[in-house]
Amino acid sequence: MEALTLSWILAMAALCVFLALVWRLRLPPSMNLPPGRMGWPLVGETLEYLATRPIGVPQPFIAKRVARYGSIFKTHLFGCPTIVTTDPDFNRFVLANEGKLFQSSYPAGVDRVLGKFSMVQASGELHKRMRALTVSFMQAQSLKDNFLQTIQARVISLLSTWEGRVVKIQDEAQSLSFDCIVGHVLGMDPGAENTKTIKEDFFNLVYGLTIPLRIPGTRYWTAMKGRQNIVRLVEQMVAERTTKPCTARKDFLQQLLQDDNGKNLTLEQISDFIVFMLFAAHDTTATAMTMAIKYLLANPQALNQLQEEHLEIRRNKRSPDEPLEWNDYLQMTFTQHVINETLRLTNVLTSAHRIALQDVQTEEGYVIPKGWKVVSSWTTIHLNPKLYAEPLEFNPWRWKTQSVKYFTPFSGGPRFCTGSELARLEIALLLHFIITKYSLHPAEDDEAVYFGTVKMRKGLPVTVTKLSQIL
């Protein structure tokens, strides 16, 4: 028995040595790679990279390596040799050279959940066609004509249920954001039974963007089941609209089926496109809504100035319930400062993932080998004291003069988010109707953490009082 145990130990030791040797042989010979380490065989340093961390502070994994190796270092993440860059100018270079030196390439888990034809993964001519469709759908005129009044109505309807309750802002923001986007993308009524079903599937999908272990019971397995259900629904809707066309519809799916850029898309491409649209228009917006309220509740001076801006807009309306117009939205200057500061501190999108299409040399003389992944960290740049004074402080006034050169909450280059203005509009409208009609107070202490996505541990519970009751 002892001999058998010893043999097993020796065999395992030999396997570990073999894997370590293979691991080192994977590094390109005679290349001036950035400094760093590749971590353990197979898993690399992925687990430390994904570790839960607080929001509003530099990511420990990256901060520790920047202190040791500098602004560009090598590592091994998600099964791939990777270069991480926190250099502001090199990050801009990476984003600007999309399709030339670099190409979008996210971890396999993201690829499978959002789909291989999502805008995250699509490239070349397909990406150009998809981008043209989203630009057309979300241009300023469309926001003014089709989105402004619809979003207002949904915000007012949601807030009417808050009075006298303890509500979890995170849950309410997610519900609002989803109801808005599912209506605009698929033309679905938020109160309909099939909308409630797809909402549950969608949230399972969002929460499952984590380590891709497709084992029953894991978050990833649940996410893939949710994706399958959403895709099945989209395919049914496409079949119905193809057999019974209705040009009166104004949702994105209808535009996709009618537009020349969308007509030649396959059913799989359409399904992936829709899944991505739902995800992209929901996650950043809902999280930013939640975090904006969190920061404002902790900063009375900012809250008071924001409230005064919105009360002034209300004073200029003919009646207390008169809907906002586009010009009212354009007057929300300090609101945009608050949104910018929320996005800077929260970093809903922490980084951009690319793959090198050829060997690329940095100004420092380092070489990024062809086929290696490149992770451009935005969190580190948005919290860089050389770019932002007192970067860990919530200071919306900084945006009166702050440069936006290195500000990338919605990515940049050819992949700049076409829904950025829609997100800003939804956040601004929610803040407007909250602070002109209600007073919020924290019901419990809470904190924000990052594990795959930004979350409040308790959902940010607040007590809600109607303003007329406290004036």
TrEMBL record:
Bilayer topology annotation: Single-pass membrane protein
Presence of keyword Cell wall biogenesis/degradation: no
Protein name as annotated: Uncharacterized protein CPD-1
Keyword Repressor part of the UniProt annotation: no
Lineage, uppermost ranks: Eukaryota, Viridiplantae, Streptophyta, Embryophyta, Tracheophyta
Keywords associated with the record: Heme, Iron, Membrane, Metal-binding, Oxidoreductase, Transmembrane, Transmembrane helix
GO BP field: brassinosteroid biosynthetic process; brassinosteroid homeostasis
Residue ranges of the TM segments: none
Molecular-function GO term, any one: monooxygenase activity
Cellular localisation: Membrane
